Amino acid sequence: MLATAARSVREGEDAHRFAGGPASTPGVALEAATARRMADLFKVLADPARLRVMACLVGGEVCVHRLVETLGMSQPAVSHHLRVLRFMGLVSYRREGRHVFYRLDDRHVLDLFMQALSHASHSGSAT
């Protein structure tokens, strides 16, 4: 369902890009359940601490201990944010002995993060 919505968004973008602007863009059909899941995703991403955790994972897999050191946060706080990100399917992990290594779940999560970063960087400060 989410893939269909994403495809519709891409098709809508193509229509906007190639047909001369917003007047000719058909929009996107978005079911209520999909809109709720998207809103939940944006709520998770609305936390600056979670975005900092994700930023640490852009370069690849990182153990929790290293995240704690890099972010200057407590281990329970880092673990909480990782648990929320994992629940939303944004990060995944592997265990190696007593160490747990986290990474962004897949390429589209990286793309989402980088697009948000690019948008925030060029749109200036909202506050």
Automatic annotation (TrEMBL):
Biased composition (Basic and acidic residues): 8-17
InterPro entries: ArsR-like_HTH (IPR011991), HTH_ArsR_DNA-bd_dom (IPR001845), Metal_resp_trans_reg (IPR051011), WH-like_DNA-bd_sf (IPR036388), WH_DNA-bd_sf (IPR036390)
CDD domains, sorted: HTH_ARSR
Keywords: DNA-binding, Transcription, Transcription regulation
Bilayer-crossing regions: none
Superkingdom: Bacteria
Ranges of residues in domain HTH arsR-type: 30-124
Region described as Disordered: spans on this chain: 1-25
Name under which the protein is recorded: Metalloregulator ArsR/SmtB family transcription factor
Organism of provenance: Carboxydichorda subterranea
